[in-house]
């Protein structure tokens, strides 16, 4: 889905569609069907990667999800990541850093959460929070924030050298869509637990968050770890588009079933000729 | 599914069916459909439990899977556990203990892997390995092994007091089914990576493993943490039966959506009356 790839250069999020469905002409029902149809392909590719990981390969995937509140990171986890075998997935949700985490470099907790070889790691928020809320809320000195973009690029380049295929997705919703989704949460008692009055306070900072996203996207949109901006006003398209990107990443890795490191026919004979077991 | 609950007293695994389908009269296709139909109910219950966990409740589920090689622990993870939102699941696969783990009490690594409140934890193998392979392979002194049954019961009672609902499943396959499944792995190059010549050596110890399972099942089949023995020769039934048990456990907990701890109407007004955002 190269159409979703953010071109290099300055980023203007208001100029990027949040309600389009690039690469797909069907409606919601078609989109949900297309996602379900991706399931077997994703499952096959993921299992191959997992198998490869048992034989010394360092290759793995890291799907990184960023986006404003209600942009649907949880929905992608449930509907898209949920298509693949949970044994092969490692999800980490990054909250506000703990006391211990704050005493370390901002990448410390990130490095501890990297997927093992053969695994599809998923970050629900990530080190980008340290140049997003970190910048908007002034959680560090401006020059510290400033230094982080380069540190992130160095870190991601290092990951790529170590076999990590990074898929960085920004789930792009409009402020109006966020407002609708917050209103839905308030209207449905089964969703009250997802709402926090602070969510409305954060909306007042929307332009600041937008600017922080624009800076982060521009400065970390590297050749080796590009950004994808996913129109996310339509949940079904958002889920499908991330599915495509995950499929493309796995497909590009072309993981292979490991060859047997034993004599298959000899083992077949052993099994045939064993003493009765019960 | 009380039919699957192991009755108290001595256990004779050869007398327990491995190819039956208790509680279900349909065929494979019906069983797969029934499992898929469980999905929404499981997802709803799991999300309620998760929501409850955000409000101070300590309740969680621990699904514990044991069984001989090829009994299908991985299949249950993929097909049954895979039905629920991966954000609410924590799977731990216990391998042979590491150097560090061997230097600690056998429950040390288990305690570190317990699910957080609101989470469905899944153990693929567990502390029971320490009275199964531990006994068969003589990995500890007989009196040490002997002491573990009581320690396990004490530990599980403590978990129950701390809000953990334990679902202990023994996936029961016959030796013949295992042989067929090993032969399938050998016949299919895509499955060679799952095969190890040592798997055939282990089969020679089948009666010892059976005796170890029988002792473990009998001695840890407590009121508060009973065992379920799942006929597992038919993969579809095994997946469905574990789904039922998970559903029953969650249903019995009756998790409730948390009530809003804020004034819903006041927040609705705030959202309505906010300054335009973009």
From TrEMBL, chains A, B:
| UniProt keyword annotations, A-Z | Kinase, Transferase
- Key word Plastid present: no
Q: Name one GO biological process term.
A: polyphosphate metabolic process
GO molecular function annotation = polyphosphate kinase activity
Identification of the protein by name? Polyphosphate kinase 2 family protein
Tell me the segments the record calls region Disordered: 1-27
Tagged with keyword Zinc: no
Spell out the Pfam families in the cross-references: PPK2
Ranges for domain Polyphosphate kinase-2-related come to 27-255
